[in-house]
C-alpha cells in the first residue's frame, strides 16, 4: 500500500470537507430541490439581525432532527449523499477530479472509506474509528452531539440578515469552530470573513447554504450545499469483512489534521 500517497490524498479530502460538509459546501445543480418560502417572510429592511439569526439557527438545527439528502458541487468537489442523525448512519460519494472518487460510509463511530479512479490506491474499504479523526472529525460526517453539523455551522456565523422571503445573507468566520484545523489555519485572515447566503423552506428547514469561497482563492468560486428528501429512510450496509482493511495510521493522522 502506498501510504504516503494515501496521506497526501487524505489531506486533499480534509481540505475539501473542511470547507464543504461543515456548512461551506458546493454549488448545486439547477434541478436540485430547494425550498422557496420562509417560516417568517419579511423584507430585509424590516428584519432585525437578531430575528434573522434566530430563524436561520432554528432552520439549521433541524438538520439534526431527521434524515436528509445532501448535494454538493464546486470546482474541487462534486458529491451526493444521505445521512440519518438519529441512527448516526450516512453514505456520501465525492468526486474530486484527478484526486479520484471517494465514498464514505458512517455507521455509528465507524467510518469506511473507499477510493477509486486513482492508481495505486487500496481496492478494499479502509476502516477508521471516526472519533479519532481529530477534534473536528473531518471525515466524521456526524460528530457526537451535532450529528447534522448544524451547531458548527451556526457557531461560524458572524452576522446575518434576511434578504427576502426565506432568504438570508451574512458572513462566516471558520476560525471560530475550526481553530486547530490546518486547512483553515493556512487560509489566515481570509477564513474570518467568508460571505454566505442561505434559503429556508416553508417548514422552516434549511434547504440551501452557499458560500462565496472566491475570497479564499479565486479558483474556488461559489460553493453550495443543498438539503432535500427530509425524513426519507436511510439504509447503510456495513462492508463485508473480506472487503475491509484497517486504514494506516499515516492516513488517519492526515484526516485528523
TrEMBL record:
Secretion signal, residue range per the UniProt entry: 1-23
UniProtKB keywords: Signal
Gene3D superfamilies associated with the record: 2.50.20.20
Domain of life: Bacteria
InterPro entries assigned: LolA/LolB/LppX (IPR029046)
Region called Disordered, residue ranges: 32-51, 237-257
Keyword field contains Signal: yes
Protein name in the entry: Lipoprotein LprG
Protein's organism: Micromonospora citrea
